[in-house]
Structures are given as C-alpha cells and as structure tokens.
Amino acid sequence: VLRVAEGSDLRARAERLDRDDPLAAVRERFVLPPGVYLDGNSLGLLPRAVAARVAQVVRSEWGEGLIGSWNTAGWFALPLRVGDRIARLVGAPPGSVVAGDSTSVQLFNTLVAAARLRPGRSALVTDVANFPTDGYVAGSVARLLGLDLVLVDPSQPLDLDRVLDRHLAVLTLSHVDYRTGVLHDMTAVTAAAHAAGGVVVWDLAHSAGALPVDLLGADADFAVGCTYKYLNGGPGAPAFGFVHPRWADVAEPPLTGWLGHATPFALEPEYRPAAGAARLRVGTPPVLSMAALDAALDVWDGIDLADVRAKSLALTDLFVEAVQERLAPLRVQPVVPREHARRGSQVCLRHLDAYPVVQALIDRGVVGDFREPDLMRFGFTPLTLRHADVLSAVDVLEDVLRTQAWRHPRFAQRSPVT
Ligand SMILES: Cc1ncc(COP(=O)(O)O)c(C=O)c1O
Predict the structure, then answer these.
(1) Which amino acids bring their CB within 6 angstroms of ligand 1?
(2) How far is residue 331's CA from residue 151's CA, in Å, rounded to a whole number?
(3) Which of 4, 147, 338, 374 could serve as a FRET partner for 258 with CA atoms 20 to 30 Å apart?
(4) Single pTM value for the model
(5) What is the pLDDT of residues 41-52, one digit of tens each?
C-alpha cells in the first residue's frame, strides 16, 4: 500500500512536470521510437528533417552538381559552417570550432597541439577512469612525444592537486564521466591547471547538447566532442574540435592534412597552417554525414540550454527517486552524483547481473546500455523524453527484476556492441 502511495506521488509530479515542460513540443521534431529510449547518450534519435536533407544532397548536390558542388553547394565550407553551429551550443566563439573526423582523431590532434605549446614540461595527465579511447590516445601521445602519462582520479581533489605542478604540460579530462556521470567543474579545473602552467583539453562527448557548456567562459584551451549522442548527428557523425582564439594561430596540430593548409588549392610543397581553427581540418570531409549533422542541428533553433539543463535534472531526479523507492529491495544501486552541480545527464544502476537485465529491458522496449563491469547505463535526453517515460521505464525494470525475466538464457548472449 505504501509503495503504491509513493508511486502515485511520483506520478503526479511527472504529470505536472510534463504539463509545464517548455520543451514538450520539441520531441515532435524527431522520429520517435516505440517504448522508452534511454540511450540517446550513445546514439541520439533521428531528427525528422535529416532524411529529406540527405536525400536532397545525394540526388541533387552529388547526382547533378557533382564536383561543382564543392563550391556551389558550399561543401568546402561545411566543417567550419557546421562548426559554428556547434560552437553556439558549447559556448565557443564563431570560427573556433571545426567539425570532422572522429573524436579519437580530434583528441590526438589537439593533445599533440596542446603539448607542443608546453615544451620542456613532462606530464600528460588524464583520468584513470576516462573513456578508453581518451586513455589510449593520451598514452600514445605521451609515448610519441616522450612525456610521462600520469593517471589520476579527478573525483579526489587531492589527487588532482598532487599533479598540478611545474611538470604539467597537458591535462585532459572528460567533462562528464561516461560511467559515473560525474560532471567536472570546467572553470575551476581549468584555472587550477593554468595556475600550474599547463593547458587543458576537454572531451565534451557527454556534455555537448546535454547541458550548457561555456568553453570560453571556462577559459578552456582545447576541446573535442562527438555529435552522434546528444546532438543527434547519426551513427559515425563527424566529431568536432575547438581551439581557444588565443592559440588558434599558434597551435601546431600534428595532422597536417591538405585541407588544414592556408591555401589548399595552391598545392604548395610545404605545409603552412590555415589561420585560426581551420588548421584543425585534416582531409576531405564526409559530406553526407556532415549534411545529416547540419540538418540535425536545426532542432536546436530557439532552444534555451537552461531549459535543457533544468529538464535533464528533473528527469534524473525522478528516475533516481523512483529507483530508490521501488527497487532498493531488489539490490539495485543508483550510481550518480547527488549534487546537481556534479551531475551530467545520465544515471547508472549497479546490479550484479547488469548485462542480462539490460537485454531483458531492451526486449521490452526500454533501451539502455551495459557498461563493464556491473553497470546499467541510462541516458536522459531532455529534447525527446517525457517525465512519464521515466516512470514507465522504472515500471518495466521493476517487473523484469521481480519476475526475474532477465534469467532467460537468450539475455546472457553477448553481442559485439553492448
Ligand atoms: C568520453 C568519450 N570520448 C570519446 C568517445 C568515442 O570516440 P569516437 O567518436 O572516436 O568513437 C566516447 C564514446 O562513447 C566517449 O564516451
């Protein structure tokens, strides 16, 4: 009886939040899947306008315009034009963001460029629990440049303080941790690294489009991010790189591809970097993916990121409270910072059998993902989710756990992508 009463309180709250939601109509800009999709932090939903735009680029710009479309359809300018649209969402000035390549490639390019700004310093510092690509790329950059790779746990302030010294060349962190959902204080961490004389490269994979990011306000030196999560650019969508204007004409990215050249079509034998962030360009951009991303970014027209943040926190609060009230006896532990200021837009639940439970949920239309070793990860995309959806997901989770439906052997089979 008690459980029903509590549940109905949450339901009344969800109804009220949905009724008053300033973003309620935005979900109509997307192709909405059945069930409850809580994996927009891995692959965002398809915005409705994308298919027609890509078809038009294929049929008309490619099919008819052919090579001339590099000029007439503006293909050549796409990386900077799309970069400017992303810039607005991450607090970067126009001309400081370039779209293209993958996050991993952007990270390599910016990490080396950042380290080259600090010759004579020996430490490349990153988070011991950072996303694997960040750790792997940082390790390779350290080996390439003869730096010491230093791994810290940035959720322990003392740990970070310990390495912010005269050896620091570059600090690189994910703004939001892909597992714990911890949101770092970009301004404070950047200031501390600067005070030690280092430069900072931020990975915005889990914050761009999920919450307000203020790269310029935080005085960030470099940043990278992907666009297939909260920016809905589609599978394998181009990533982006940001360079602060103070470095834009000084930085020396190592990937000296011809499209980062000052005059690519002069075809000069010597490399001369383009002015500004254009030097983060490498080779020929993937025009079709770039067009899909460009169309996807239209959904942000008129959206206030403060509304996005408020809704994200309301969604994650509701989820955590419902899980705590209803699932605690079922040995499910939320993994999420309690304080809003430390929280991204996702919540993980710890459970010994997380993998099969996630598969059983997906089978019932509640899509999350599994992250090693024991986490069920759920992303909350404020543009497309309703508060009522959050409670529906908890209903299904409760049923899967109570009935032990997840024990069916087919849910234990591992797929290559989890
Ligand atoms: C923090 C972070 N960085 C990078 C990536 C992926 O890099 P890439 O776009 O090169 O596959 C992810 C993927 O989820 C991520 O979570």
Answers:
(1) 102-104, 131, 133-134, 174, 178, 203, 205-206, 226, 239
(2) 32
(3) 147
(4) 0.96
(5) 999 999 999 999
